[in-house]
């Protein structure tokens, strides 16, 4: 499993690196690679909640970025969406593994109080995703970018929660990478809108 995660992470880096150059403005991953942080079973409740919230959030992100495959958007937007998809699939694999290693479930269930205690519900409403999917081609790209910006902003908020209260080095390292990369993606997408 570790080899598969490393392979997917490597492919993600190659995809992003192969599709961009310093002059084209595309975001490349930042922070240490997952394999450079020594794995430990030490964790706290914040680490668990972060991973559970992030997995659910990532799965919604995958729904959103897959919309770019079926709609008319510029090539830079398609490339960014594809890179996000590969990265988030790899991150889900890592997060699921860590929770499994800790004997924790992938989801905290639907206890909204738990979410409220950790900054609120950071999900994107399924109705919003469906509304963007139904937009005509002339309006889709702008709606897609606005929805993805809001979604990635929520990822930054979830990562901040872990950076401030987590204790597990892998989980905190992932939160650092999510915080940096999603902030950069937001800036990139705002540039596409202007």
TrEMBL record:
Keywords: Signal. PROSITE patterns: PROKAR_LIPOPROTEIN. InterPro entries: DUF305_CopM-like, Ferritin-like. It comes from the Bacteria. Residues 47-191 form the DUF305 domain. The keyword Cell membrane does not apply. Residues 1-17 form the signal peptide. This is Uncharacterized protein (DUF305 family). The lineage of its organism: Bacteria, Bacillati, Actinomycetota, Actinomycetes, Pseudonocardiales.
